[in-house]
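Handout, section 4.2: multi-component inputs.
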Amino acid sequence: MIHLQNVVKHFGTGSNQIKAVDDVSFSVQEGEIFGIIGYSGAGKSTLIRLLNGLEMPTSGSIQVGGTKISSTTGKELRKARQKVSMVFQHFNLLWSRTVQENIAFPLEIAGVRKAEREKKVTELIELVGLSGRADAYPSELSGGQKQRVGIARALANDPEVLLCDEATSALDPETTDSILALLTGINERLGLTIVLITHEMQVIRKICHRVAVMEAGKVVEIGNVLDVFQSPKAEITKRFLAQVTEPDAAKEAIQHIQDEVPTGKLIKLVFVGERTEQPVLASLIRKYDIDVNIVQGNISHTQGGAYGTLILQLVGDEKLVEQAIHHLHEQNVQTEVIGNGQ
Amino acid sequence: MDNDFLGNVDWDKMWQATTETLYMTALSTVFTFVIGLALGILLFLSSPGQLWANRFMNIVVGAFVNIFRSIPFIILIILLIPVTIFIVGTMRGPNAALPALIIGAAPFYGRMVLIALQEIDKGVIEAAKSMGAKTSTIIFKVLLPESMPALVSGITVTSIALVGYTAMAGVIGAGGLGTLAFLDGFQRSREDVVWVATILILIIVFIIQFIGDFFVNKLDKR
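Output:
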């Protein structure tokens, strides 16, 4: 659906030159929800704007659907943009227009006749769950409702690709969930390809099939969400994963147990898929004569299956602890020592 | 001087002067609105990073606006005498004031339009672009509606300034309340004529302000 080949984007010239996107190549399949994660300044905003030609690459080629965006200009490009629509972090609604007039705007641009516009707008308002608010102005809506208008507007011309530019970053966690559910529903029902950028790993975890991690203009890691969660390679990916698996409370818990029981060995287990449902821990305790303290644990669900982490402290004879860790490895549970006893 | 207060006021003349002032203000406001809007949009779109980013055009239009905005109106009228005679054919009557009024006020309003357009959230323009909007669509369906309250309050302020300019245009014999107050009132020491003309000008200003505020409130959905 989307193919990027050696895409480079520079801003400025000479010594002020910034490489916003630096030799990026990847493909996105049709019907996929593809996430791009990175900190601000990583180049992800520029990257997503290359996909609808709001920015043009310095070099490299970009193909979206049947159109080579990187070499399309003028009328052709404007036509192509109707099939690659965008949802924005700050909604970018026209405050001078009501909900239905905002949703009708892209249809006006596409030259759709009035009767047809009205029919389509009514459908879309229904689809995004804003029935009864058609005549409200954006200033009368909550953030979540505004983003629903943004999504309805983006869907108006039946696009093939939906680009989400930090679509949930300005929303509270609960509203974020409802917007993500809406996006997942649209992806499933309409088979729409979605590319989203975010700095929140939770967003990737909840709705993406595949993820690319960006740092300093480069894609440093790319793969299925579950694979990346299970065995992150790049340092920055691990830091993003910590957002999901190691909340601040966990760090406090680890600190606390190290103060309380300084002799134990801290290990982190990662479970993926079916492993999350098997009693690994019970068999460990039965088999080895060691004490096990549970420090912190969680299981989260991704589009590709469940994913859990468990942080344990093993206290006992050093040899037995070593054997226990070995046993876990044999059980195909990914185990990592994250702290040694003194 | 007559002891009878208001005894010097010739109401027919006063009424005629009022209609002249209204005529000059209304017509120059309409032209100022259109020309100022064009200048402001041109300045906005040619500024760096905008749709028609063009340094040369930006500098030329910017210089035009700044120069004509800076010349004191009373001097501008005199400088424009040849232009006025060329366009209107005479230096007398309300029509003769129009070129100077418009050329003096349009750049001033153009600045206000520029400021109003700069207040528009860049994201909204980007959103329109991402939907495949043409530049003309962006101008008429995004830029103008989204800045309408500021454009209206700007033309209200400009229109009120124009009322003041029409009074000054009296020096070239343009007519209106300013001329009446100066020639019939001040120069003949008829204070009551000055007062009545002043009050009528104030009433015109208040009415313009009231209409402007009414529309700004009606238009602003933010």
